[in-house]
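In the previous chapter we treated chains in isolation. Here, by contrast, the input contains two separate entities that must be folded as one system, with a combined length of 532 residues.
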Amino acid sequence: MREIPFDTAVIGGGAAGMAAALEVRARGHRVCIVERDDELGGILLQCIHNGFGLHEFREDLTGPEYAGRAIREVAESEITIFTRTTVSEIASHGGGRELTCYSAENGVVKIASRAIVLAMGCRERNRGNLRIPGSRPAGVFTAGLAQRLINMEGYVPGRDFVIIGSGDIGLIMARRLQWLGCRVHAVIEIMPYPSGLTRNIVQCLNDFSIPLYLNHVVSRIHGSGRVTGVDVTPVPGGVPNPAGEFHIPCDTILLSVGLIPENELSKAAGVEITTETNGPVVDATMMTSAEGIFATGNVLHVHDLVDNVTEESRLTGGFVADYLAGLRPARQIRVRPGSNVRSITPARVDPLRANRLYLRPLIVKNNAALVLSAGGRQIRRIMKSHVQPSEMISVNLRAVDLADLAPDTVLELSIT
Amino acid sequence: MRKELTCISCPIGCALVAETQADGSVSVTGNQCSRGVEYAHDELVDPKRVVTATCRTNSTRHPRLPVRSREPCPREKIAGVLQRIYGLTAEVPVSQGDLLAELDGVQIVATRTLED
């Protein structure tokens, strides 16, 4: 067993973990990244398509290219990397924390650190989460798993596909499968609007004339050994219409129905989780309810663009460095989601500085107004040309917006 | 020719209407920035897509290498470019940006570095 002391230990070596680690290191602290895979990069490495980096680099990069930039920066900095190392526990230790880790090369490794950054990302929702009726044949995959099998391991898991859910990974896989010579017969979405980005609907479905059935569900999966097809039922207004049911033969089903932050380690460490995002509750500095434990990236809330992950994680790294230097906000003010807002991250602001908040809207609307209010009094109104649930909104609240607020004020952000 | 398009230059996704004028130029409405004009023009006159796929490697650790067309590729050339990619076997080590093949003016480059 080895004991290694750091100022900050980052759990997860994807886009979030690397950006946070680089920022903490740039501020002069001893940092390590603990990654369970063979190499840094995370899910970006299996996202071989382009569309990454438009905000961060003003370039149209593929996932591996975007990851490669961060990997090179990490390699050139003095950040300690533990790959093939899995964290099993976060325990209190002196004034800080201690990670218990396992690796094939080093056995049990204990890492003592003053601060911890949670950057483990998400898992995919699967068939069990959806409770789709029918038999239990082979040939049902989550879209991200199929992506890994095809892009990294070189296996194509079927010929004729139906995709359940219009999440981005499913849309991206639709194009990838068509380009491999497979057929994608339909994308089935329960909601009245797509859950993926517009550009993915255009380039991954419309380019190949793949039908997108909004307000529809897969009501039964058929097949004994292998999937043979699905029944699709319209659900206009959320009410099933069995008379409109139809059958699509296929041999493989991909599920692209959302991501859930990986919370097992966090929960065991006493970190409070919120149902708004399914991730940890954080304060204005991205610190969780557990002292010295921060969270960033998809483990905190699901992002649709990696550019936002990098931006948020760089901010988080700065907050971690402040914490290590003993700098904490004098006071914080709560912000809660108002009408048409699903979640706000972080849910507290520091009234003495500018705060960057990330919102998930519940509605599709053009010329929407984002309204910041306190006790019914409007403080600021920000116009947005277009909002939709599949696009996260980022907004800057200025210190001047937050001046002269009583300490027990609860701010509200709504969309009208 | 008149075409309704969704601009994909950025995540906003402006709804564009592009129309070919009598003098051969293309008029565009609905865009919020100049990239919308460029996109609509290209979709009407010369639609292109970045092609991304993977090819075989001679590595045991990494059986697939991700690749892309260096620049957006004319849509009618995509099928041929994909066939070319699927016929390639990349030899490691390979660096991100390395040119692996060229087909009809379309350069196929590695999008990641593989040491072994």
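The two ends of chain A are 57 Å apart (CA to CA). Chain A has a mean pLDDT of 95. Compare these points with the single-chain example from earlier in the chapter.
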